[in-house]
Write a structure and sequence with these properties.
Elements (H helix, E strand, L loop, with lengths): L1 E10 L2 E11 L3 E6 L6 H9 L3 E2 L3 E4 L2 E2 L13 E4 L11 H11 L4 H10 L1 H4 L11 H13 L5 E5 L7 H16 L3 E5 L3 H7 L2 E6 L2 E7 H6 L2 H6 L4
Parallel strand pairs: 3-9, 3-10, 7-8, 8-9
Antiparallel strand pairs: 1-2, 1-4, 1-5, 5-6, 10-11
Helix pairs in contact: 2-5
The protein binds adenosine-5'-triphosphate (ATP).
C-alpha cells in the first residue's frame, strides 16, 4: 500500500533522513519508535510532502508520489494527523470536518461514518474547536483526517498528553480503522500503547529504519527498547 524506499531528507545542508525505508500494508498498524530527533516526524512529513527530499522514493499503491506537491497528496487518500493537532481553532467542529470533506470531495456517508466513531464530537458539532478539551481536539484532528476517506493514515503521537480514558478511545478508533482495512503508520513513544496497538514495530535511529519486527518480538525481548530507544 505505502512504500518508502531509501529516502533522504535535508534540512538545509544537514541530512535528517538517510536512506529511510518502510512499508505499511492494508489492515496493519506499523509503529515508529526511536529516540528524540531520530527522524520519526520527518518521515511522516516527507510522506506528506512537507520536507525536502533527495534520493529515494515514496509509492502509494505502486505509484511514485515523491514529486507531487503537498496539497495533492491527501487527495490520493493519505490522511495526516500531525503532532499538536493543527486545528482551525476559531472554527466549529463541523466546519473543521467540512474542510476534510471538501479536500477530497468525500461522499456524505464518510462524515456519518466518522462521527459514529466519535460520539463525543457528534454532541459538539457547533462548538468552536479551540474550546474543546485536549482529548476532544485530538479526536477532531483524527476525525478531520478520516473525512478524506483515506486508505493510509499517518498519526504523530496521537495520545501525547491525554488522560487514560481518552488514550483508550483513540486506541479503539485506530484498531477499528485497521480492521476496516486502512494502513496505519503511527509514531508512538509510550511502550504500553505500542504493545497494545502495533502489528509491527520499526525502530528509527539516525534517520534510518534500523530494525523492523512483529510486535511479538518486542514483547518477547524488551531489551530491544534499551538498545534502540534508551528506555526499558
Ligand atoms: N525544520 C527543521 N529544520 C532543521 N532541522 C530539523 C527540522 N525539522 C527537523 N529537524 C531535525 O531533524 C532531526 C529529526 O527530527 P524529527 O522531528 O523527525 O525527530 P523525531 O524522531 O520525530 O523526534 P521527537 O521524538 O523528538 O519528536 C532532528 O535532528 C531535528 O532537529
Amino acid at each position: 500500500m505505502l512504500e518508502v524506499s531509501n529516502l533522504d531528507v535535508y534540512h538545509g545542508s544537514s541530512k535528517t533522513l538517510q536512506g529511510m525505508s518502510l512499508t505499511v500494508e492494508k489492515g496493519e498498524v506499523l509503529c515508529l519508535l526511536g529516540r528524540n530527533g531520530a527522524g520519526k516526524t520527518t518521515t511522516l512529513r516527507a510522506i506528506m510532502g512537507f520536507a525536502k527530499t533527495g534520493a529515494g522514493s515514496i509509492r502509494l499503491d505502486g505509484t511514485e508520489i515523491s514529486a507531487l506537491p503537498a496539497h495533492e497528496r491527501p487527495r490520493l487518500g493519505i490522511g495526516y494527523v500531525p503532532q499538536g493537532r493543527r486545528l482551525f481553532s476559531e472554527l466549529t467542529v463541523r466546519e473543521n470536518l467540512e474542510i476534510g470533506m471538501t479536500t477530497r470531495r468525500s461522499p456524505p456517508r464518510v462524515l456519518d461514518e466518522t462521527l459514529a466513531l466519535f460520539p463525543r464530537l457528534q454532541e459538539r458539532l457547533g462548538q468552536v474547536s479551540g474550546t474543546l478539551s485536549g482529548g476532544e481536539q485530538q479526536m477532531l484532528a483524527t476525525a478531520r483526517a478520516l473525512c478524506l476517506d483515506p486508505k493510509v493514515i499517518l498519526l504523530d503521537e496521537p495520545t501525547e498528553g491525554l488522560m487514560p480514558s481518552m488514550i483508550a478511545t483513540i486506541r479503539d478508533v485506530v484498531l477499528t480503522l485497521r480492521n476496516q482495512g486502512k494502513a496505519i503508520l503511527l509514531v508512538e513513544q509510550r511502550v504500553e500503547a505500542v504493545l497494545s496497538i502495533a502489528d509491527r514495530v520499526c525502530f528509527v535511529e539516525n534517520g534510518k529504519a534500523q530494525a523492523v519486527m512483529p510486535v511479538e518480538a518486542l514483547r518477547a525481548d524488551p531489551s530491544l527498547l534499551s538498545r534502540y530507544v534508551g528506555v526499558g
